[in-house]
Q: What sequence folds into this?
């Protein structure tokens, strides 16, 4: 059986993390409160991925959040040095405080207004 969840939160791990090689069945990765650093590639998270907790680490740099899986429910990047823009969508909770990550509303198509007669 493939690993679905890995919780490495609240340790003293340091160094960089390669998120492009996670197992296909991985759904939840908890890395918050460590001393992890470097840049992150979030463009190849496994299909069906749901929860990524990166808060309170030393990750830095411009990050491409545009390819987050549709299944994503929670992304924690608070208290990191990451920057970039996350487009808000229904069902996705993102924590960005004390980071340079911007939170932007998803553009929705407006229905034309009906003329009242």
A:
């Amino acid at each position: 059986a493939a690993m679905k969840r890995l919780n490495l939160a609240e340790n003293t791990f340091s160094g960089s993390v390669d998120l492009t090689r996670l197992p296909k069945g991985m759904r939840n990765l908890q890395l918050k409160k460590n001393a992890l650093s470097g840049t992150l590639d979030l463009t190849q998270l496994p299909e069906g991925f749901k929860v990524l907790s990166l808060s309170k680490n030393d990750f830095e740099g411009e990050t491409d959040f545009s390819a987050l899986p549709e299944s994503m429910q929670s992304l924690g990047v608070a208290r990191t040095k990451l920057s970039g823009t996350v487009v808000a969508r229904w069902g996705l909770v993102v924590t960005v405080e004390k980071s340079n990550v911007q939170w932007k509303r998803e553009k929705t198509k407006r229905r034309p207004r009906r003329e009242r007669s």
About this structure: Residues 5-104 form one domain.
